[in-house]
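re: that chain from earlier
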Amino acid sequence: MTTYDFAIVGAGIAGASLAAELSASGASVLLLEAEDRPGYHATGRSAAFWEECYGGPEIVPLTLASGSYLRERGFLHERGALYIAREGDEELVTQFMQRFVPTGATIQHLGRGDLQKRVPGIRHDWSDAIWEPVCADIDVAGLHAHYLAQAREADAAIECRARVVRLERHDRRWDIATERGEAFQAAVVVNAAGAWADELAQLAGVKPAGIAPYRRTVAQVRVDPPVPDDLPLVLDIRGRFYFKPESGRLWLSPHDEEPSEPCDAAPEELAVAEAIAQLEEVVDWRVEAVEHKWAGLRSFAADRRPVYGYAPDVEGFAWFAGQGGFGIQTAPAAARLGRQLLLGEERDAMTEELDAELYSPARFD
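^ sequence. v structure.
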């Protein structure tokens, strides 16, 4: 039986990007996916934007470090983003600027006149905004396929319908058993299992990192008047909703974060209704139909930072999880950093400004 250098569990954007990076180094990589196809859960249900401030100041370095890779390969298409605020939210706007200006994110404050130009039909009591001109749509499917193709070209093995049910360590290697009775071996197991990350850790006898999944709902709606093609991504400064255009329709979310068990997440009707009600408070558009709705699980550690690197308590087990809703927009820099941490490599131009200690599993000890 082949003993792989790395067995990565989970073939969403986290596992796929890390598999591409590790296999490019010459390491032998096995990518194990529980579902029928890679990217079935969070990756396939992303709202698909690259927004510099998303995730907070400690995530901005990963996002900025990923920007050039994504732009140069055609995965980003500029849209712009607006954080909008009502009268009475002035302190929140000031706090936002104070938090994010030092990070290097490109942001500027706009008044009511500029806001009305960028969002036609916005109601009068929305008076302030923060403008992010470089926010972009991201081709999630294309990026995910890009990493899977890179991994395959470098001889990584990708196994679907391979839910891991047993992990045992013997003689500096892991014996891995799947639900269908398959057996694999690897020197290192990498936990890229998303919402199932803590469950996988427990299988290996590793202390969980406290990564919890939360449901996020999105609906695609048809509105009158039709959505302008150049409408920016619009987010509430209070974190209650966001919406963006998509192929002549509007993708709309109540920005919900409902605790959930790891599962195939389904949208809640109440969340969709709340999103529509919030939209009607923002603009004078009429929602004609809800055409499609879905939900995904965003997984976070308690401090909302991702978890990258070797577990301090069990040899040969590494974390690459807890990437919340920012895993796609940070994938290039995160995967490069993950490779460097797992292989003991020096930093390069993409990762030299990143503080790996912020994301270390050892921070939970």
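Residues 140-153 form the longest helix (14 residues).
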